[in-house]
Design brief:
The structure is a single chain. This protein is α/β, with parallel strands linked by helices and 134 residues long. It has a single domain, classed as 3-Layer(aba) Sandwich (Rossmann fold). The protein has 2 helices and 6 strands. Strands 3-2-1-4-5-6 form a 6-stranded mixed β-sheet, sandwiched between helices.
Length: 134
């Protein structure tokens, strides 16, 4: 990946089941991605039952915006939006996994980063699953 920029759509679950501590953890994961992969072009989204964003985020970004949310959980608006735009190289969703999934898997790779106590891996209908540690 030397010299190549990878486009990633990253969505943070901001539904009512995500408390401030978990949201802080998601933001730390985002910062870790930026440190580890300086050539990544991230379009940041927040989603509860509604999609918010995108906000372009990279290593030069001043900060992360306050993310709206607090409602129910629906993953479909994120994927529906991406279907209408240029597809990213990959999508990452930081969540507890409890919500409504799209019926069809997207064409691009998807990584679900699931909180401790989140939905069981076998219940995630598509993509790869990474478990965040306690």
């Amino acid at each position: 990946m030397d010299g190549e920029t990878v486009s990633v759509a990253l969505c943070i679950d901001t539904s009512g089941s995500i408390d401030d501590e978990t949201l802080g953890r998601f933001l730390n994961e985002l910062r870790g991605i930026l440190r580890a992969y300086p050539k990544v072009d991230i379009q940041l989204y927040a989603c509860d039952a509604k999609l918010h964003g995108p906000w372009p985020i990279d290593t030069e970004s001043e900060g992360i915006p306050k993310l709206p949310g607090g409602g129910g959980t629906d993953f479909r608006p994120f994927f529906k939006h991406l279907d209408k735009t240029t597809a990213p190289d990959a999508a990452i969703y930081l969540t507890d996994g409890y919500g409504d999934f799209p019926r069809q898997a997207p064409e691009y790779p998807t990584l679900w980063a699931i909180t401790p106590g989140g939905l069981e891996t076998k219940s995630i209908p598509f993509g790869e699953v990474a478990r965040l540690l306690d």
